[in-house]
Amino acid sequence: MLGEFINPYYLQVASFILINIILGLSIYVTLSSGQLSLGSAGFMGIGAYTSALLTINFDLPIIAGIIAGALVAGILGILIGIPSLRLQGVYLAIATLGFGEVIRVFFVNWESVTKGAVGISNIPHIGREIFRMLRDSGFDPGVLGLKNNQFVFLTVFILLLIVNIFVVWFLIRQNKSRVGRAFASIKMDEKAAEAMGINITYYKVLAFTQGAVLSGFAGALYAHVMAYISPADFAYHRAVEILIFAVFGGSEVIWGAIFGAAFMTTMPEVLRFISEYRYMIYGLVLIVMMAFRPQGIIDAQVLDWFKKRKLPKRRVDHGSSNQKHL
Amino acid sequence: MVLQIKNISKNFGGISALTDVSFNINEGEIFGLIGPNGAGKTTMFNVITNVFGPTSGDILFAGETITGKKPHKITELGICRTFQNIKLFPQMTVLDNVMVGGHCRSSSGVFRSVFRTKFQKDEEKQLRQRALELLELVDLVDIMDAISENLSYGQQRRLEIARALASDPKLLLLDEPAAGMNETETESLFGLIKKVQAKGITVLIIEHDMPLVMKLCDRIVVLNFGKKLAEGTPEEIQNNQEVIEAYLGSEEDEHSA
Amino acid sequence: MILEQLINGITLGSIYAIVALGFTLVFGVLGIINMAHGEIFMFGAFIGVIMTSTLGLPIWVAFLAAIIVTAILGYMLERFALRPLRGKQGVSHLAPLISTIGVSILLENVSHHLFGAGNHPFRNAFADISFQIGSITIYLVQILIFVISILLMMALSYWLSKTKAGKALRATAENLETASLLGVNTKKIIVLTVVIASAMGGIAGILVGMAFNSVNPQMGLSMGLKGLAIIILGGMGNVKGAMAGGLILGLSETLIVAYGDSGYRDAIAFIAIIIILMLRPQGLFGQKTTEAGR
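^ Those are the sequences you sent over. The predicted structure of the assembly is below.
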């Protein structure tokens, strides 16, 4: 029976991986236009708090809350992204880090709304909500051979998987297009891109905002999967963790972020004994990666190696068939 | 008149890179901008494309003032350039570099690109087609999938020209396209620029290769220390005493470099 | 009352100024932002805690120990996190930043395991000694902090402008290649810079312990970000700007705690970073460079 195969613990880890993949992709997207934003934790928090507060205080359905969370994060992304155009490289990274901290301090202090450091609990849980809806219309998970909680975890996992597939598909499609080429050209040589007629203001803000929307989206999902959030969830540590997904996994290609998120989320689970020292290892990973392989584990060459082994039939009508920068 | 340079001056702190330079370029001309190193030629290109604005003066393109317009807008209006130090997109393929050049002549945004609407698919096909044609023109179509930073110097220069042409310019600005080229390559370049002219595109070219300049250009402006020294046909320039003096000694250095 | 707040502000400000000086030295010479600086400062503070509270040693021993430990940390930072990145082809300018973020996380976690979380009391023998001037109470500690800070700043300024090593450092900061061509041992200077900057962080750590009588591991991140705010305020690589910026931040924070909503105290620095970078990417006192903005 199905019930024997489904381990809620594995499903939970897998769900975290999926949320972290979206976070990793949020850094990837802004990086693909040449901007390093360390504000993902801040946008994640905004998405989480927005959705949590709307669903709790105004009885909004979860899906509306999540969309609202992502949108609010996106709007803030535009507001921060436009002035940030003036900042290059390191300065942008720091300003976005500062932004993340400001957001966190607001979460901690705006107690009337956010309940401060105590955090918000009893946030509607996606899995349980779906379960409730199905049960009210007569469905019994026992039919599938599942216990209630197995069903809940499975639902969450499947939902997140679908979301992930959509997001990855979206980004791959975007990369292999005029928009993707614009991002890449801005990343490689901003002045040249501008001279070739690319409106770099528009595209940089676009990339930045997409990153914010993704982070906010991931944050809202996080809120409705954990059912409890507090400002500490969106602090400097989170920003560094997300950074590591990209830095370790590979900052130049989509699969890098996916691999980084999957690996970094799984490792502390697999190697329980190191989980206490997890941040020390994160620190070492950053130092070592920068010294020996700054582009991350997975880069265009690694992907090429995989592709060559599979001899795919490629449709060549979208840009060159040899797109190393994707 | 395609381009009108009106009393352009450019100061950097205490240094005058350009002082009160004026000249006009007629449609269909190949117009040469020459002068010893440091004369202000690339600065002029930068002012025309608004990499930075002039300290004073105006630039009119097809009758419209373009001084102060955003660089990408200027490209949209029909001026495109190459760079003295070659600014290709290094990790992109040859084909993609040229397709990026066509960015301002296309319009598919995020939605159309992700959902591959008919409009977008047609547009991509057109962009790719146009890029291939241009690569044929500069004889790089065989290596269209090569990564551009791996190309030879001469190939990179030709690629930059193809990329600039992809933006469908009315005025093409070439910054020392023959630099580092041997005789054969320079001959090809001459043919290429002539072909560009035959398509009705006006060309403004900075060059140090004097034989090429004299053979290629319809008219020439000479800059020295940021000031306009002379203007005229190749014959007039070659016989201009001041020009000869300005170049005396330095022309020999150019050729031996 | 306001005078006392001003004194508090100046005391805090001078500590901030010293931390900021550490940042600015490293930025001036290496052109990078050392995100681990705050953690090194925190380490210094904790060494102070161990020396004074756990071992009961006098405060000057604490100073010495903090200086030594943080100097060593600085050396290791340079040797293992920064030097491998120098002279490598095509290394993005973000790499040192990311590397120092790695060091900061590493140090923070190490200190967490070594010292434990939460507040640790910082005992010092003369915490309660104070003077009355009119209606104002000034503590000996405050005077000491201020004096030590001023002396440190003066010593640094003197060293930078008058001594051979100091001039060599300034030369390296202006142009590494030229300095090296002119015979400056730039490698040594770089190591020296990071070591001095880190030691200053260590001193600041002890001063904070003296000022607040307790230290906690969160201080590192908080101080790190504030130090960033200060040098952005004062101009990256600008020594006078760092000092001025430190004082300004110290005063603003103290006044907001005294007269405004204290919870938002930490946000000031961060908001300041953002606003200043938006309006004037080169800082209040800085020179416009191509790196500071478009």
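Chain B is about 40% helix and 25% strand. The longest helix of chain B spans residues 118-137.

Shout if you want it in another format.
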